Prior knowledge:
Layout: H1 6-10, H2 18-28, E1 35-39, E2 55-60, H3 63-66, E3 73-75, E4 88-94, H4 102-115, E5 116-125, E6 134-136, E7 143-145, H5 155-162, E8 166-179, H6 183-192, H7 219-231, E9 234-245
Parallel strand pairs: 1-2, 1-4, 2-3, 4-5
Antiparallel strand pairs: 5-9, 6-7, 8-9
The structure holds zinc ion.
Amino acid sequence: MNYLAESTWENYDSAHQADLRIAKLLAFLPSDVETILDAGCGNGIITNKLIAKYQVTGLDISPAALKYLQCPVVQASVTEIPFPAKSFDAVICNEVLEHLDNAALQKAVQELKRVAAKYIIISVPHQEQLEKLYYRCANCGFTEHVYGHLQSFSEDTLVSYLAPEFYLKNRDVFGPLNRDFKPLLLKIRQRWLKQWSNPGSGAKCSRCQQEKFEIKKTILSKGINSLNVLLERKRPYWFMGLFIKKAAEL
Ligand SMILES: [Zn+2]
């Protein structure tokens, strides 16, 4: 995913999947919140919906994304947030942390905790099976997640990242239903039958910039997919958690 490209943000969330997350977020926001930082706001599909009720600031690294914001914005990384400590009642961070490598993730979490006076709301894909959405370049063999996700979170891992200053007050697992792949079936489909995830039209390999991917469907790979449908149940895609600063930290 190229965050700086105009095209990334033009039709971002064209399926309107953000509506569910906005409703959930509004229900999660405590009643004493007035100021919000949307850390990694993207094109503001969530941020712009908060303007009517809150003083919101959007922060993102991409100028192309920030063009769509209808509130004050700051171009910066979530790993280095240019605000003093406790600047906002609540800091929200939606679908951002899963894109960060380990070092950036550590920094980002520290920054969210630093600028939040009382609350942090985080949403991420819930226990995502990252390998399922790997593409494989037919030219150089490079493999990578189609949306650039590098992290998979459970409730426990998020709680440990936010500790000790913040604790989990409210949480939900919700959203579109999604089916994992049985690891052995996935291995067979990807390694032997050469059907990996399709990164979409116009996508290029991050390493060699070619546009050829191992995505062919065969009778056998279709059979594997059907078998997986029988063996694996669907489950909701997102986790959202409301974290509260402990009284001793206020
Ligand atoms: Zn390649």
